[in-house]
Design a protein that fits this description.
By secondary structure, this protein is mostly helical. The protein has 9 helices and 2 strands. The protein folds into 2 domains: 11-64, no CATH class; 70-200, Orthogonal Bundle (Cytochrome Bc1 Complex, Chain D, domain 2). Helices cover 54% and strands 2% of the residues. Residues 1-7 have low confidence and may be disordered.
């Protein structure tokens, strides 16, 4: 009788386990199949919400508030890279030869054109044809003979009596060199603009960008 009593009833631990298992099942059924209500792992939930908030902040920063873009950051990094390469090629400092070589680098000259547009067109015009400042494309020069090192001295140290700022105090040495090399490419183009000023010199053929 003792044996029958034990086999005919479920033990309390087994009944509790069955009840707990039923509680973990979801309340829906598909083709007689039920599934456990298992929550996602906490690490997965944290990654999901972290990704969601990051994507939201990224969208607002770059596309709503227009605070820049990945492409702009990449372009800035490439400009820095080109400057570093050009600086190594120039060596210890600016010379007539190193500036001439720099002016043959089309990628660096494209960067220099943007610096010229930002800093120089107010006085020299968008193409160097001259406004307040002299025409940079003719064969007349107020200071020096129109050589690259002459231009470098004017750009770096300025001419206060003429209102030319000393860009060497505001720009990095490599930026000064780039602008000087770019101005060198304008020589001999003789664009219509401000009348000639200063002394006529033997026109220097402008370097061809990219060699």
């Amino acid at each position: 009788m003792e044996h029958e009593s034990k086999s005919g009833t479920s033990s309390p631990p087994a009944a509790a386990a069955a009840t707990a298992a039923e509680a973990e099942l979801t309340d829906h059924e598909y083709d007689g199949i039920q599934e456990y209500d298992n929550p996602m792992p906490r690490w997965w939930v944290l990654i999901f919400w972290g990704s969601f908030y990051f994507a939201t902040a990224y969208f607002l920063w770059f596309h709503v508030y227009d605070k820049g873009s990945v492409s702009e950051s990449y372009a800035a990094d490439m400009r820095t890279f080109r400057e570093e390469i050009a600086a190594r090629e120039m060596g210890s400092g600016a010379t007539e030869e190193s500036l001439a070589k720099l002016s043959e680098n089309s990628a660096v000259m494209a960067d220099a054109a943007s610096v010229f547009t930002t800093r120089c067109i107010q006085c020299h015009g968008p193409k160097g044809e001259g406004l307040i400042g002299p025409n940079l494309t003719d064969d007349h020069w107020i200071h020096g003979q129109g050589k690259l090192m002459d231009i470098h001295g004017v750009v770096k140290d300025g001419v206060l009596t003429k209102g030319m700022p000393a860009w060497g105090r505001q720009l990095q040495p490599m930026e000064v060199a780039k602008v000087v090399a770019y101005v060198g490419t304008l020589r001999g183009k003789n664009l219509p603009g401000k009348p000639p000023e200063g002394q006529k010199v033997v026109a220097a053929a402008p370097p061809s960008p990219g060699g």
